[in-house]
Amino acid sequence: MYVYDMTKRSMQEPTFLILTALAAGPQHGYGIITDAERISGGVTRLQTGTLYMALDRLRSARLVEPDREEVADGRLRRYYRLTDEGAALLAAETERRSASAAVAAQRLRARLAGGTA
Amino acid sequence: MPVRDPAGAAVLERRYRRLLRCYPPAHREFHREEMLGVLLAGARPGQRTPGLGQAVNLAACGLVIRVRRIPGWLAACGLVIRVRRIPGWLAADAGQDALAVVSLIAPAVVVILLALGRGAMDATAAARVPFWQLLPFPPSLGQFVVMMIAWLAVVLLGLTGRRGAAAVIAAISLTLAWLAVLTASVQQSGIGPGGLLLFPAADFDVFLASLAACSLALSPGPRRGLAIVGWRRACLMIAGLSAGFGFPAIVQLVHPAAPVGDLAFRLLGVLAIALAVAATRVRGPAGRRVAGLVAAGLLPSLAVTLPYPLYGGLAPLLVILLVVVLVWPVAIVSWLGRVRRASRAG
To answer: For B58, which of A28, A48, A76 is closest by C-beta distance?
Structure first.
């Protein structure tokens, strides 16, 4: 099994969306895709291959784990949940993104003020 | 699930299952059913074929996961095992036959490439093409004549059964060619973007000359090669490989201002060699080995198609060195295998 150290890389958008979707509670694959689309304001729709590649990686890094399995319409549904490590990483990433967004907003305000002056 | 046509859904599911074969078995076992559920849940009503984007995404992700799951040490072991098989591959009788065929065709190809190279140089000089499009170290007419006589002698001595003498002349000529390449690389290493730009024009000769010298030294010789392929096939192979390896020179003979330094042109050169190797293949196990040996000449050509930051550095020279240096021990092991078999039989 390969080892993937998520904490040493910048988080990609699909990873952020998946972790955010799971932060509300356990979800199955299709639920994560629809929730991620909603979270991104319809901008990002995860492809199935991308989702399961990311889930595989996140599971290896112990950031998510299978929660339970159900059978719906004769087909297996596996639910995933966020681990404590995953929640901590998401919190750190959220903080980083918030700080970046705050700086961007501040500079844009300054630019606007300079332009109107 | 939006798919209401059961027959259509079954077709779609079968096609998705086929696409999921791109994933490694362990991943497929764990995720297959849930992935199928997600894929079918996202399908349009009446959809029978996976969308192009979805198909590409599944195939690409499957391949990425496969690659990620190969531990580095295992990949390295696989490479070592494959490399270790090469001497055995050549030490077999078919390997010796392959070297014999190479000893017949390679010297003749070297002679033709020398002539083509000289012709292309004269054509570009006459057309006043800028210097950077020419050879980095244009040899004098005297050097050209000496090399031509030497390699013509190699061909003739080989065909008349004097394999040892042919190998000695080829080895001396090869050493001189290597000294020229190394001298030029030292001289040019500090000069602007030109750097090693035009080594391909010379390195094809060096690679083939090395192949010719070691196959002459360590194989039953050109006469055995001729007995295997016959005159007609030998001439076809020589013509095809000369056209492939001499592609840039041939184009320059026709259009002296052709942009031989462009990436597209270099890729065309690689394609020409690949086609020549494929088209001139001899049937049977010896033929596959001949193609394998000659196809090693593609590696330096591929190296010079690298993007400029890599290409402008030492990459092509290192690849040429690696290929040429590897050819000799492989051929020596092949020869030792033959000697051992002969002593056992005796």
So the answer is: A48
